[in-house]
Every structure is written in C-alpha cells, then in structure tokens.
Amino acid sequence: MLSTLSIVIAGITAYVGLFHVSIFFHDRSRKDSIFFSLFCFSNAVYASFNFFFYGAASQPGAVVWQYGMSLTVPLTAISLFWFILFFLGQKPRRIAWLITAFYGAYYPVAVILDRSCVRDAGRMSVRIFEFPGGIAVRYYDAAPGILTYLLYAVHISLFLYLMILTIQSFRDGRKEAKPVAAVLALLFFSFVSDVLVGSGVYDGVYFLGYACFVVVLVITSLLSMEIMSGASALRRMEESEERYRAIFENRGTAAGIVDRESTILLCNERFEELCGYPKSEIEGKMKWTDFVYQEDVERLRSNRTFLQDGSVFQFECRLNSRGEGDKYIQVNSSYVQGKGLYVVTLNDVTDRRTAQFMLLQKNVDLEAANEELEATNEEFEAQNEELAAAYTELESRERQYREIFNMATDSLFIVDEKGLIALANPTACETYGYTAEELTGMEISRLVHTDYRHLFSEFMDSMRKNETYHGNAMDIRKDGTTFYTEVRGSRITYMGKPHILSVVRDISERKRTEDLVVQSEKMMTVGGLAAGMAHEINNPLSVIIQGIQATMNRISSGSEKNREVAAGAGIDLNKLERYLEERHINVYFRGMQEAAARAAKIVSSMLNFSRGGSTRISTSLHGIIKESIDMAEKDYSFEKKYDFKHISIKKDYDESIGDIPCVPEEIEQVFLNILKNAAAAMSEKQSEEYTPEIIITTRREQGYAVITIGDNGPGMEEKVKKRVFEPFFTTKSPGSGTGLGLSVSYFIVTSNHHGTIEVESESGRGTVFTIKLPLGAE
Amino acid sequence: MENQQIKMLIIDDEEMLGEIVKDYFEDLGIAVKQVVSGKEGIDELLENDYDVALVDLRLPDTSGTDLISRVSRERDHIKFFIFTGSLDFILNEEMLSLGLSDESVIYKPVRDMSELHKRILKSFR
User: Fold this and answer.
1) Are residues A110 and A40 in the same domain?
2) Three-state DSSP class for A185?
3) Are the beta carbons of A106 and A147 closer than 8 angstroms?
4) So what's the pLDDT on residue A778?
5) Rg (CA), chain A
6) What is the ipTM score, two decimals?
7) Residue ending a domain, choose from A231, A259, A280
8) Minimal Cα–Cα distance from B4 to chain A, Å?
9) Residue B65 maps to which CATH number?
10) Which residues of A touch B84 (CB under 8 A)?
11) Nearest-CA distance from B21 to chain A in Å?
12) What is the pTM of this model?
C-alpha cells in the first residue's frame, strides 16, 4: 500500500517539478522556482526509490533502494536550502556555499566509502508497523551508517540556520517567511521522527518523504497562488502588454528591466542603439553596469540607495557604448513592487550635458570674463573715484591757492622764464602803482631800482639753477618812488610750464624800525656811558679851564697883589704881559681853554642822551621855530664861514597848529641843529646865481605836528644819509662840530617826545628833515 | 656885602680844583678854606662861622645834598652852592625848601669864575 502511495507521490512531485521548471524558463528571474523544481525532482526520485523499497520482497533489494533513497537526501536538502534562500530574497552568503560544498562533497565520499557507511546492511531488521485501523506495514530496514549520522548532524545545523534566516526575514516584514517557517517545522519534526525510527528507538515508517511531499504541495500551492495572482496580473499586463510594449519600445528613452544582479532581462530598441549591442547579446547576458564606466560604477556602488528595493534612483554617468562614441546618460531606476526587478531607463543626456558643459564652460569663461570685467570695472571705478577726489581736491586747492595768491599781503608775481610777468596779485598792483593789465607782460626787472639790477640777475641765475632765492633789494614804483624789499623766489609750474614765483615784501617800514632800534640802542649805550663819565671828565676839565683862568688872573697887571708879588720877584708885569702877547702864550692859553670847553660841551651833549623825564609844557611850535632861527642867526657870529642872514628862509605854516607839549629848550636845540647843519652844508655850495634857501613847513597829520626843514644845499650821498643820526658822525672838519648834534636831536624827538625824525636827501638836490611831534590831547 | 666880610668853605675831593677856586676867591679878598671830604666839611661848617659853602655833589664819604640838609638845619644862614660835574643834576624838593635855587647849582667846568662870584654876591642881597 505504501509503495502505491509512493509511486503516486513520485508522479505528482515530478509533475510539480516540471511545472516549476517551465515557470523558470518562462521567467528566469525566478531562481526559487528552479531550486524548487530540483527539490521536487529529488523528492520524486526518493518517492520512486521508496516505491521499490517498500515493494521489495527480498532483503538485499530493499537495502539497495534504501541506499538510493539515502543518497537523494542531500540533494533534497541542498535544493530546499537554495530555494528558501531565493524565496526569502536572501543573498547567498559564504555559509550557503559552505553548506553546499559539504553536501556536494558527500556524494564522492559516499561513493568511495563502503555502502555500509550509509546504510549498514549488516544490521538489518524487519520493521513491522501497524497503522491504526489494522493496516500493518512490514519492511526491511538497514541501520544508518556513519555518513548518515553525520548528515543528521549537518541537517540539524542546516535547519537551525534556515530557521534563523526565516525569522530574520519575518522580522524584515516578508510574509513568505511564515509558510516557510511552518514547512521547516514540519520537516524538522518528521526528520527527528525518522532519526528516532532509524535508530530503532521505536518502530514506525520513515516519514520524511511524505512530509516532503506535503511541503511540495504547500509550496507549490504557495507559488501557484503567487503565480496565480501574478498570472491575473500577467493577464492584465498582457492586456496592456502591447500598449506598454509599444511605450517601452517607442519611447525615446532607452529602457530595460534589470534584476537584482543588474542583469538586463529586457531592453528596447533604443537601448540597443544606445549601447551598440543587439538585444540578443544584451538580454539575460549583460549587466547594465557593463555599459557604465568603471569609475562611475564605483561611484554608484558607494551610493547606498542604488538598487535597493523600494527606492527610486537617479544619477548621471558616462555610457560605455560600442558605437556613437562617449555618451552621457541619465539613469533612472525604479523598483518594481514585489518582483525584485527594476525598470532602468537611460536618457541620452550627451547633448544636454555637452550643451550644459559648453554652457558651463561658456559660463565659466563668461564668469571669468565677467570677473575680469568687474575687476577692471572696480579698478576703473576706484580710479574714477580717485580722479574725482583728486580733481575735487585740486579744485579746492586751486581755489585756496588763488585765494592765498589774491589775499597775500606780499606782492606776488608769477614770471615766465624770460622774466616777463604772467600774473601779479592785487597787492603787487597796489604796491607798485600799476594795474594788473600794465603789469602783465612787463619785464619784472623794470620794477627793480637800477642800483639793484645786479641782484636781479643773481635772482634769475638761481632760478635757472632751480634754487630758491632769498635777498633784499630796492624796488621802484610807477611814480618813481622807491622802497626796500625782501625778495623770495622759487620755481613753480604754472599753466603747465616752468615759471618763477617771486614774493616781494615791502620792508621799508621794517627797515626803518630796525634802523631806529639800532640807533636807539647805540644811543642808550652812549647816553648811559655819558652819564657816568660826565662827572669824572668835568672835574679835570674844571681844573684845566678854571686853572687857566686863575693863571691869567695871577699874571694880570691889574691886580695889586700880582704887582706886589711880581715886584718882590723883580718882574715887571707889564713887560711880562707884552712878552706873553708877543710869544702867543696868551693864544695858547685861550686855545687850551677852548679845547677843554669843547670837551665839556661834548660831555654835556652826550648827557642829553640819558636825560629824560623833563617836564613837557605846552609851547607854541611856531614860537619855538622862531626862537631857533634867532639863535641860529646869533650863533653865526662865532663861525666866520657862513652868514645865516644871507639865507632866504621860506615858511609855510599851518597856523591852526598852536601849542604842542614839549620841552621847548630841547626842541629848540633840535631845530637849531638842523638849521646850523643846513647853513653849513649850503655854505659849501658857492656860485653867483646860487641862493641858499631853507623852507620850513608845518602841517597836521593824524595827531602829529609834522615839521619839515628843507634846504637846497648839496644834499647827501646815500652812505652819509645812512649815518647822519649816528653819534660822533660828522662831515665837518675836526673842532667845528661834536658829531652829536643830530643824534641828540634824534634822541630828543624819539625818546623824549615820542615823535619821529627822518631825513630825505639826494646828492645835489638838498636835504629835507621831517620831524613829527605828537600834538597831544587837543 | 663886601668880599672882605665873606667867609667861604670849599668842599671838593678834587683838591687841585678846590685850590684853584680858593686862590681865585682869595685874590678877590674873600676868606676861603678848602677841605676834601664830607666829614671835614661838616666839622668845619659847624665849628666855624661860614657865610658861603661851595659843596661838590659827589664826595667820597657823603653826598653834597646830604651834607647840606644836615648842616643847614643848624646853620641856616649859610649860603650853599652845589658844585657838580653831573650836568643832569636837578634840585629836589628838600633842597628847594632849604632855600636853594637854580642859581645855587654851579656846573663844572666853570668857564668864567667871575660868574660864580656874581652869584655869590647876589645871594646876599
């Protein structure tokens, strides 16, 4: 009965196996199907051997069939193992290959070794097993050999491994794991039962074969259900197959269906074109990664989402094609739910890439150009700003300089290299009395006094040598008047050409002040000295002068005492007098007296320098002048050289000037000194038609009474004029003047009266003294 | 007052000058004594009865004005003349209060001593 069952099982199982082989050939991605069919066939073989085993009438026959059965077991196990691996979607690991290798190794070992290692025919037993219901089974059974026991151990570990895998898969959310676990459990229990039966623990039948048959049924129903549901989907697919196929084929995109191992299962024409291979070479044979540059593939592999179930993936890479040269493709892969398949489309993006690249390149170029332009622009802008700033500054500076030029209190000239005035400031016009138009184009040398032209050429020389010039000179105004100048010169650029900037300062006032300061200082020294000396000098002078007087007295015959003493000495005083007269001794005495008196006068004059603080009283100015003229006329009598009365004195008075605060004697002395000097000077100039003349004028000027005393005498040379106020300076012969007259006058006017005294003179044209005395509070 | 009635003291450290002046006035009949220091002058003026004193302004031990102010308090009848080489000398208030005037100041050098004589005589009027 069991043998009948076995042959039925063998038939069914073989059929199932064939069915799954056909499925595999229909869908090569179904590797689980091929392993399942293998499992089926091995089971079919086993069942067949089982049929003979149970049906064997003799003991040796049974042993052979049992041996055959045992040999099929490893194949069953290994095919089941691989089936479960693929069914659960597990990737074969090293341990899977190890297990496979072990089972594979079993067969040569089993063949080489004695059969008893598999089934020990020496330990045979007759098994009689009675099924419930009275059906008894009787068969010969050889005890398991050493190899069989070894297999048992490996089976157990295989079971454990598969259980672990199943549980893992279940945890990963694979529903297929559940029936697999049930199948494994069933197999495990039947296996344990068989081992126990085989070891003779209890009597029974070998159960595993039937369990496998159940497994075949369960799995095939599972697979069938899957295929059935897949088949209905397939039908639906088939319905739209053509549509999809049309889309698949005719879409401009190269597309392919790829399994988990990247093998291209299906591809369209465009794919062929793109890759340069015919479909027949591609489909099921080439991996799509074969068409991708190795570097890009590695780049891809490093990407975790690549070909992971459920993920949509997109990237760009280079296509390693056989034709059309290098191409860039965009790869899109999307997982096909539940199929372990991916739809991979390849878009030729070469043009886009090239365009993009070109654009990019252009962009880069443009960017570079742009950057360059920007930099240049910035540079220009900066330069512009700088220029603008510089221009503004220049403008404001120009304005400043123009203002400075126009506002300067010094005369400023810009002179070209020929010495022609290019520009003169308002002060220059005012100072020199020319208009700006007159000055422009004028030779600047014309402004310099002829006596100082040599300095002007020095000036031009140093300008040519590019040196700065600094010097003093005398310049001449339009009206012919002169003034002292301080000149500075330096080279400048004006209107883009080399020019000379000449700065001229009128220093007449300063020079005058300087001169006066020098004079005052001298006088203060002389005055201070004179005060100290006067007493000491006057005593010895007194001895001389008074001694001579006393001497003359005692020689005189008019004195009774003299005559008395002379008589006692035997001298006739009258005769002595005659002797003294004849021998000019009296003249000597008078000369000595005069000389000493002159010395006394000098001391007295010098003393005037230190005198001060004399009370000023209001006195008529014109009265003082008259007094002075009178004294001059009287004074003449001492000097035989000139006659003051012959001098014509012209007066031009401002009669409104009345009294001025002064020390009248001092002012009188000032006028007298000047008048006497004028007379003395004019006496040198003698000719028929010459009429010596003194002009005295008075006028008011800004709180001052201005008195001028001018003569038409020979005048003074410049060097004399410079020194007239200097103490002890005189042009008169020794004895006829002290050399202190004008310096005392200067001192009286400036120091004692806070006025001024100046002299103007030109050789041959006379001399004019100008005295300014404060009018005081009127 | 006649020359013969006048008794005069000359106080001047320039001994030669004092002697000349002394000789000149003695020739005129005036009784003249000459000393060369302030101290001698003061002693002489206080001990003896002088009518006129010609006092040098700068003396080695004192000044002419000090001497005058000191002596004139006790001998207010003496006519003092200040004999000085310092031409810038001006009488101060005190001197003026003691009866001195510009006439009392004789500046050295005296060109004509008769001038001095006239002033002396004039002072007794």
Assistant:
1) yes
2) helix
3) yes
4) 47
5) 76
6) 0.85
7) A231
8) 15
9) 3.40.50.2300
10) 535, 538
11) 7
12) 0.36
